[in-house]
Design brief:
With about 140 residues, this protein is mainly alpha-helical. About 45% of the residues lie in helices and about 5% in strands.
Length: about 140
């Protein structure tokens, strides 16, 4: 991230209505002005997820589960299953539609995951995660 990333994002969204619509729908931007070229590479290769392994070791996260939300996103989340689960580094949303679904669509993936919660489900998601990372479809 660049210095003053939050204010840069605020200005960018105020000046770019298409970006604002994209942000409001997905809570992310395909062309995020806050990231550096190195940052884009790290995101694309999912290397930015590696520090979260520390959170798994501390018991604050699971390997598989819904992605953590920032407090401001909680009002945009229409479901309840997220709150019943431990956040994870990877999950059903990441290996499914990920960049093609809206932020609120995550609730459907969290509900499905919660209803099919098992070691088998987790292993399947972990295998699909490897494929997603190798294909470089992360962002």
């Amino acid at each position: 991230m660049v210095i003053n990333a939050d204010s840069l994002l605020e200005t960018y969204l105020a000046e770019n209505s298409a970006a604002l619509e994209e942000w409001n729908t997905y809570q992310k931007l395909a062309q995020d002005p806050r990231t550096t070229p190195v940052g884009r590479f790290i995101r694309k290769t999912s290397l930015d997820e590696l520090p979260q392994l520390w959170n798994v070791l501390l018991g604050e996260m699971s390997l598989v589960g819904p992605r953590p939300m920032i407090p401001s996103q909680k009002t945009l989340y229409p479901g309840q299953d997220y709150y019943d689960l431990h956040p994870g580094i990877t999950g059903m949303w990441q290996v499914s539609l990920r960049n093609k679904s809206t932020f609120s669509d995550r609730a459907e993936f969290d509900t499905k995951y919660n209803r099919t919660l098992s070691l088998r489900t987790d292993l399947g998601i972990l295998l699909k995660t490897v494929q997603v990372v190798l294909k470089g479809t992360g962002c």
